């Protein structure tokens, strides 16, 4: 059942194109049935995990490698699963309306469902490797979602940026996870969490922690990797809403929370989380305040939220974890709603710039009401759930084990800025004088309002009754992150205390910032533009440029298109390495024994040598080809002489056909000319002689040493008994070692395709006008 | 490229069918005597190369009827097909299967996945070489 729940998104994705033809413009509603029923399914698991228990559902996948499709459901993963599937349902409905009539709507849904399924797999996986597979799947599918408008250069550029940052971090994360598996000897989260082993003392611990942190920070857009997230706004709005609220960027935070019980209590871990989280929080809040595009504003406020979440994991107290879970849920609810509302505004007015909107409350009253309520949650004002979360945040920072003052100042500063941002998002578009917009504004359709409406309702209900979600799943989630059972008593009203006063202070200062926004904006904009030349994004572009420069440089040196250079490099490297190994491992042994050789064997050897020398010195191409043929026939004679008729026949045929092929090619070549200097020819000669000598030494060594018992006797004994064949060579080819042969004929096929395309699609043809 | 000598024309017409028959003979007897799919394919290819030298690439194409690339593809398909019986019967991939068909008289026909595989090798070798040769012969200028 669990397996089905995770994989059903992939299955439905396959059926989307067909469904789209049937359902037409109702496709969003039809597809939303899946996440809706998944939400119901996950909700039905609530009773089983309420007391902090874990559900383990095991499915073998690659048992030989210790990779399983095991799923673990505890409070944390269930909260995520509910958010992913619940918000996912609304996003699918919303997208049907937002992208109505888009020519690639079916493709959009295919990727969206695959993304949703990957995300579910990520939060439910128990196996670390499976987790990583899903992690990378979300990177890839989100790449396709961000670059959905693939005809737009910007969209492509920023999709690639998101992919490079998150998948690059993903590689580092893989190293970290593998180190973690080495440390604990167990490849599952449940095993890791249950183990009593103290992993902090292990010599690999530092490396593992750093790798995992980098992976999580890139995914969750922590400074200095935060730049990809606002750029990912190139995606259609439903994607932004989904990526920001419940998924993608939360994956990194999920990982941090998931590993918290094992990693907690270590300065490297907690300290990094605190520092990076706090810096990200402030950076995000400041950048959100100084941006004008509504999607950019919201994107930077997501960066702020992610920083806050990371910081809270770093604080690590019971109160901080409670704040973490509440903030996570609150943020998912309001951010999903706000993005969908921003998309509605953009859709109905034709602009994303909040300086170019105004007075819309008359034409879009419902949108205005919902935005107002949701903005309250963003600002952390009562009676919404955002308030509960923010009070918890301040309270937990007051009691943080280290750096209370610094963290608290940072949190209050960012709270101020966020209040201002919430004010701007609500006041700028809906109040003030009516501003003429590119499209004549009118109320957004039902499908675009139901999602924000329901999410805001939930935030309101949770705000009035925070014990309701707490009793259901939040307590279980908090216990899962803390590593021991926790029972919380959440309330909207805590009486007048220090956090409340700090909230009041930030509200006041925030209102002032809203009022001053118009005057500050140009200055901030100029400052940000000046600073962006030194920012991490500029670093990213310089890094990418550096990569292509290095690539260009090494291509000019190594891949210069001259066949002679390739051969020279290949031969030199191969024979230097093998020669070195031979000398160091085996040593030189030169004992020739010619006593049992016959005169005709000498004859064959002489023939071969003579043909070789002639092939090298002759000035006629045809002559050298023919002498190469003679050389091959000499080898064939040797095979026949040592009673290997199959090899002999094959050699003979191959030589014949090679000569024919060479003649066909020679036919096209210009007349023989001397193009190389004599220095080059002596260099080539010495390399060739060197290769020949090393090869000879290797063959002598092979005759000399026998590491293993020869396998030939096995073939001889079993060829007829097991494989019913008397020709051992053939039996080896088509039975004992059939897999090799199968691979070889495919290589043959590849070679044929290569030659065919070289002949048929010659480069000069492509440049012909 | 096409030869105009009567000797080559006549010889090619006489030798080529023999070569082809011999290639099939080599293929079929390969399991017990020198031969097999690889050698058979090489012999068959040399038969067609001889024909191509005598009558040109275009005529060889007509004689082959199918594009050499398709021969190669068919060979790879045969190679893969020979792995299926083992998969269907739940054995490790590439486990050989043998069937013996009684024939009139006292003899019987030995059929096996190994033979199917060998035919695949034969076709792949033939297809690859003919792709090379015909391709090279048809290069302009």
Question: How would you characterize this protein structure?
Answer:
- The complex is a heterodimer of chains A (769) and B (141).
- Chain A has 769 residues and is mainly α.
- Chain A has helices at 2-23, 27-44, 46-49, 75-98, 105-124, 128-146, 153-184, 189-194, 205-219, 228-231, 237-245, 249-263, 267-290, 294-315, 318-349, 365-379, 385-398, 404-430, 446-464, 467-482, 498-532, 536-558, 563-585, 599-617, 621-641, 645-666, 678-704, 712-723, 728-736, 738-760, 763-767, and strands spanning 55-57, 60-62, 67-68, 71-73.
- A two-stranded antiparallel sheet of chain A has the order 1-4.
- In chain A, a hairpin with a 4-residue loop joins β2 and β3.
- In chain A, α2 packs antiparallel against α4.
- Chain A starts with a helix and ends with a helix.
- A two-stranded antiparallel sheet of chain B has the order 1-2.
- Chain B has one domain (6-136).
- The longest helix of chain B has 26 residues, at 113-138.
- Chain B has helices at 6-29, 37-55, 57-64, 68-81, 84-88, 113-138, and strands at 98-102, 108-112.
- Helix content of chain B is 68%, strand content 7%.
- The chains are: A mainly alpha (769), B mainly alpha (141).
- Chain B: This is Multisubunit sodium/proton antiporter MrpB subunit.
- Chain B: It is found in: Cell membrane.
- Chain B: It is a multi-pass membrane protein.
Write down the domain tally of chain B. Answer: 1
Largest interface: A-B, 40 and 52 residues
Instruction: Please tally the β strands of chain A and state the result.
Output: 4
Poorly predicted runs of chain B? none
| Range of strand content of chain A | under 5%
List the defining traits of the structure above.
heterodimer; A: about 775 residues; mainly alpha; 31 helices; about 75% helix; B: about 140 residues; 6 helices; 2 strands; Multisubunit sodium/proton antiporter MrpB subunit (chain B); CPA3_antiporter_subunitB (chain B)
